[in-house]
């Protein structure tokens, strides 16, 4: 088993790391801006190729597999101090561009994917509803087949990138009696009559990524903007979730690496009782645990991505990976606050932002409890 990146892959990762640091402020820039990402930020990500890593080259992407994509997303997460921007770009790519590339019609692919890859367009994933978070087989948003397409009605309650998005990938019930087989995926453009975009929420972390409601009121979506076919929305969504739960969380590996670097530097320079605090076992052991979580989570994530590239059944590996990365990132952020003490609690030092940005990872893309449920099911329980 080969655990080493090729020279070409390592060069690509270092190139992304250096370019991101140069564009977005380097490792010591703090927690990032309190506002949302700008159009300039987004176009820079497009120029760096980060918005189309796994999209086929014919549409402006880089055509990478899951493992190589994860390597570059980790470099992105390590080099960018604004985790909200990393999340916004990853949600755009894995929850929206991936299902369009895999399941969209040729016309939709040709028309939208180049702009999604270049940074000309922003995409928002509109799945979550007030009554459908973990249980996505019972969507209240409906899609009624009419002449020329489908009429969508209902509200999506939490759409990442929603207030800024030009394109939405959404899911609606087309057959209420069919459960998950009655869900259909759609591509909906913002300017379509009947699309109502809500104001951005105030939220705990990932501040650069705007999120809000999107409501559909008799919104007519052409039939050619269905993803795959009517009734296959559940499969489309789960396919995109595989990419999101694996590759999006590679950005959190980068965050965990960056956090360790901050803690090591602090432990070397901060002195108490006449010596650096890194010489105290209680401090050193916390940082060791952070390293242990990072390397264990990275191995699980790389295995999941490798299995995806091989076309193997990766449900168990992806769930284990998502659980390890998301829970490990929160635990390490809490440890970092303890290492920094009172400074870790103050916003000016940027350590508390790591905690605010990691907590959502245990909720989105399937909660930690949902991952445990999937793992238990795969074990035959």
Give a topology summary.
Blueprint: H1 7-24, H2 39-47, H3 66-79, H4 83-103, H5 106-118, E1 123-126, E2 142-146, E3 149-160, E4 167-173, E5 183-189, E6 195-197, E7 211-222, E8 226-227, H6 233-248, H7 250-269, E9 271-272, E10 275-276, H8 281-310, H9 315-340, H10 342-345, H11 351-358, H12 368-378
Parallel strand pairs: 1-4
Antiparallel strand pairs: 2-3, 3-7, 4-5, 5-8, 6-7, 9-10
Helix pairs in contact: 1-3, 3-6, 3-7, 4-5, 4-6, 6-8, 7-8, 7-9, 8-9, 9-11, 9-12
Kindly list the characteristics that best describe this protein.
single chain, 381 residues, alpha+beta, Butyryl-Coa Dehydrogenase, subunit A, domain 1, Butyryl-CoA Dehydrogenase, subunit A, domain 2, Butyryl-CoA Dehydrogenase, subunit A, domain 3, 3 domains, 4-stranded mixed β-sheet, 4-stranded antiparallel β-sheet, 12 helices, 10 strands
Provide structural commentary.
This protein has 381 residues and is of the alpha+beta class. Helix content is 50%, strand content 15%. It contains twelve helices and ten strands. Strand 9 (271-272) and strand 10 form a beta hairpin. Helix 4 (83-103) packs antiparallel against helix 6. The chain starts with 6 loop residues before the first helix and ends with a helix. The model is unreliable at 27-34 (pLDDT under 50).
Shape category: globular
Query: What percentage of amino acids are in beta strands?
Result: 5-15%
Question: In the CATH scheme, what's the topology name of the largest domain?
Answer: Butyryl-CoA Dehydrogenase, subunit A, domain 3
CATH class of the largest domain: Mainly Alpha
Number of domains: 3
pLDDT under 50 segments (min length 5)?
27-34
Mean pLDDT: 94
Number of helices: 12
Strand order of the largest sheet: 1-4-5-8
Taking all Cα atoms into account, the compactness measure Rg is 21 Å
User: Can you summarize the main beta sheet?
Assistant: 4 strands, mixed
């Amino acid at each position: 088993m080969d655990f080493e990146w090729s020279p070409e892959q390592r060069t690509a990762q270092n190139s992304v790391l250096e370019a991101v640091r140069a564009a977005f402020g380097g490792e010591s820039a703090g927690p990032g801006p309190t506002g949302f990402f700008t159009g300039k930020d987004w176009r820079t990500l497009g120029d760096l190729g980060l918005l189309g890593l796994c999209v086929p080259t014919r549409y402006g992407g880089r055509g990478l597999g899951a493992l190589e994509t994860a390597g570059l997303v980790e470099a992105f997460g390590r080099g960018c101090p604004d985790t909200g921007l990393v999340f916004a770009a990853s949600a755009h790519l894995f929850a929206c561009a991936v299902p369009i590339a895999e399941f969209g019609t040729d016309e939709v692919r040709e028309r939208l994917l180049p702009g999604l890859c270049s940074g000309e367009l922003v995409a928002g994933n509109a799945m979550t509803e007030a009554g459908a978070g973990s249980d996505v087989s019972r969507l209240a948003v409906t899609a009624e087949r009419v002449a020329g397409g489908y009429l969508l009605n209902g509200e999506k309650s939490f759409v990442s990138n929603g207030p800024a998005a030009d394109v939405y990938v959404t899911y609606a019930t087309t057959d209420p009696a069919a459960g998950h087989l009655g869900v259909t995926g759609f591509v909906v453009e913002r300017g379509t009559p009947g699309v109502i975009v809500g104001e951005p929420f105030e939220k705990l972390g990932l501040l650069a990524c705007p999120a809000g409601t999107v409501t559909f009121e008799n919104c007519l979506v052409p039939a050619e903007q269905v993803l795959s076919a009517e009734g296959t929305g559940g499969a489309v969504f789960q396919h995109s979730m595989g990419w999101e739960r694996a590759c999006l969380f590679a950005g959190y590996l980068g965050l965990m690496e960056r956090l360790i670097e901050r803690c090591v530097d602090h432990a070397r320079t901060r002195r108490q009782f006449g010596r650096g605090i890194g010489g105290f076992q209680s401090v050193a052991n916390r940082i060791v645990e952070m390293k242990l979580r990072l390397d264990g989570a990275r191995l699980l994530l790389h295995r999941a991505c490798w299995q995806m590239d091989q076309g193997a059944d990766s449900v168990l590996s992806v769930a284990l990976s998502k659980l390890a990365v998301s829970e490990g990132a929160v635990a390490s952020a809490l440890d970092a606050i303890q290492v920094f003490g009172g400074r870790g609690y103050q916003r000016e030092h940027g350590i508390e932002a790591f905690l605010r940005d990691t907590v959502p990872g245990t909720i989105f893309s399937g909660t930690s409890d949902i991952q445990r449920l999937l793992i238990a099911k795969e074990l035959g329980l």
